[in-house]
Amino acid sequence: MTKQQELENLNKKWFVECQCELKKTATQAVSGDGNGDAEIVFVGEAPGRSEDEQGRPFVGAAGKFLAEMLSKINLKREDVYITNIVKYRPPNNRDPLPEEKRSCREWLLEELKIISPKLIVFLGRHAMNNFFPELQISQVHGKLLIKSFKGISTKYFFPLYHPAAALYDGSMREILIADFKKIPTILKQKM
């Protein structure tokens, strides 16, 4: 069975088994999307309106900016895997609650276990704090974090500001692009 098939089976299982309260208000689950053999997994926060409608992560304005940044390092969406810590859209795009994050955590961990990427890139503080609750994104963005977690082989993590931050604050755009451009060097040096 290919990793892609394993991911499809995993998603079918969790569409049924996930107990997240957001299931009641979301249009549909938004599972991860992309290459099951990817070296890089991008982990965001939660689906927004466009994602909830289309059933794919990062397809709205933040997704367009993510695609633009990927092209700057000679990658396409098809080369990477993109997912979120919460698989259902919170009402009015509010921050996901701790219990919502907990109810989707096993789904995320199983995705990461199947893919076994070399690098996990956090898109925003919620994604980072799901693994590193004590850190502040303003202090560690663009810096490689190394830590082992039970159940996943990956030990290299790279926090970035969320692409949506650059849409709301133009000064963040250059910071995010500069941090993003470090990804190929990190892959070459550490992996």
Quaternary structure annotation: single chain
SS content category:
alpha/beta
Radius of gyration: 15 Å
Identify the overall geometry: globular
Structure description:
The protein has 191 residues and is of the alpha/beta class. It contains 9 helices and 6 strands; from the N terminus they run αββααβαβααββααα. The chain has a single domain, classed as Uracil-DNA glycosylase-like domain (Uracil-DNA Glycosylase, subunit E), CATH 3.40.470. Strands 1-3-2-4-6-5 form a 6-stranded mixed sheet, sandwiched between helices. Helix 1 runs antiparallel to helix 4. The two termini are 26 Å apart.
Write the layout of secondary structure elements.
Elements: H1 3-17, E1 33-34, E2 40-44, H2 49-54, H3 61-72, E3 81-84, H4 98-115, E4 119-123, H5 125-131, H6 137-140, E5 145-146, E6 156-160, H7 163-168, H8 170-180, H9 183-190
Parallel strand pairs: 2-3, 2-4, 4-6
Antiparallel strand pairs: 1-3, 5-6
Helix pairs in contact: 1-4
